Structures are given as structure tokens and as C-alpha cells.
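This part of the workshop introduces the protein records we will be handling. Getting from the letters to the C-alpha cells is the skill we practise here. The record below serves as our worked example for the rest of this section.

…
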Amino acid sequence: MTGFTGAVEFNTDALGAGLVLGVAGAGLYGLLAVSLVLTYRVSHTIGFMHGGIALFGTFFYWWLTAPADPIGGIETRMDPIPGVLVVVSVGALIGTAYGATVTGKLADWPRVRLTTYSLGWLLGLLAAVFTLFQNRIQGAQGFPLPSPFGRSKYQILGAVVTIHQVVTLAILVALIALLSLFMLRTRTGTYVRAIADDPEAGRWAGIPLHRVGTGVYALSGAASAFAGVLLATAVGISVSQVLFVFLRALTVSVLGGLQSLPLALAGCLLLGIGETTLSAELLGPLSTGEREMIIMGALLGLVFLINRFRRVRVIEAASQ
């Protein structure tokens, strides 16, 4: 096989390990992808503010649980598990505040304007991070925190997987399963699906758009903040890394047209597996840029195919 930079030898011994690590790493993007899909279904806008909540959650969790002086051994403000609960609660409050505005007085704004409003929240939360935490974390950029789930490691098909990766993926799968059941089996879930299909028709049908939408934003805000907690361990205290993960989560969400939770999960799996199976150990000397081109090209190709298949199905259904 020939790569962009020369000959690349396929290493079959690393395939199993690459697949295992890819599946384990999918959870890194999943919670943010779920948040983006949920809020798009009720507002039909891209929730850039989820990136801001995740970023704030990462730094806030660090501020709560990291030693004020790691060298001197000064005690932390809070233990990891209570710290997680506090950060998730704050994320839910931020999501509630945002949802109350976009499903309330701003509900009639054009979608482009609401998307810009969401981007403004991302920038505002970024400014809050620099204002509140810059002195506290100066010199700690990129330094990861210990996982709140412990330090256990497991060896599967030659790959070493941490308990943090296992729990992250388990939480993601459980959350998507519960949300799918919620959407199909509850009245509120039916409301959310109706709003996703036609917000105006749902409003005329008497669906409490403001209450339902605010609740969805509160849930997605909590999920984004929890994603920030997980990123504090996975990528460390780094603004650029957290925003990079958010943008990748946004990319995989597009796989299902920002409407499908299962397809968003499939996109996370594809992205995670692509990152590991295209590593230097498996395919040889691929540069980071070449690997990104291959992964993003595959994802965008799938987006095109899925949307075309859906369009054909809609046309066939309309003709019957």
C-alpha cells in the first residue's frame, strides 16, 4: 500500500489493538455529539454553546479537584466524585439559562441569528475561563487529572485500556439507549420528536415548546459539563484540545444530519477507530495531516451517502 509520504506496510498484528482502542476512545466525542443532536432537534440550530460548557466544565473541575500546589501537597477543594456532581449541576444550570432564552423570547428569531447567538455563548464562556481560572492553572496547560473512576487498566487483544475509557464508553452507550427509549416511550419524548419534525405545527398542537426545550437544554448542558470532566483526564487542561474535541464531535453529529443518536454514535466509533487504525504502528509513517484527511474524507463521504439514501427513501415514500 502506498501512502502520501511513501511506502506504508500494513501491520495486521496491530489491527486488533487498534480496533479496541478506537472503540474505547469513541466515548471521548460521544457525550458532546449527543448534546448537539438533542438540542438541534428542539431548536434546529447548532449548539456551539456546548463547546463552551465543556470547556468551562474542564477548567472548573480542575479548579475544584486539583491541588492548589501540587509540589507542596496542598489539599484540594473537593474530592473527585463530589466535584463531578457540582460541575454537572453547573452545566445543567447554564444549559437551562440558555434554553430558556432560545425557546422563549428568542424562539421566533431566524435560525442563523440563533446559531450566532449560540456562538456568542461559546466565546463568553471561553472569556469566563480565562478570567476566572487563568491564574489558578498557569503552567498546568496540557496536564491531565487522575480519572475519578480510578487507575485500573485492562489488556484486550494486545491493547491496554483504562477504566476511564471503559466507563466513558459505558456511560455513552447507556445514555443513548435510555434517550432512545425516552423518545419512543414517553409523552415528553413524543413532544421532542414532534418539535424536531415541525416546531410550528407542534406549537399549534399545544406542545409546551418552552418547557420541553428548556428541559432538553438542561439535560444536554449537564452532559456537556460531564464531557468536560472526562476531557480533563483524557486531554488535560488545554483550551485548544477541548475545542478540537468539540469540533470533531460536531463533525460526527452531522453523520445523522444532527437528528439521529444512533448515527452519531456510529460516527464516534468510526472516528475513534480511524484515529487508532491509521496510527503509525498500524499503517506506517502517516503524518497527522494525512491521517486527518483520510478520516475526515471518510466521514464526509458517509454524510453524502447517508443523505442521498435518505432522500431516495423520502421520494419513494411520497410516490406510493
About this structure: The chain has a mean pLDDT of 75. The chain has one domain: 2-319. The beta strands are 2-3, 6-7, 153-156, 159-162.
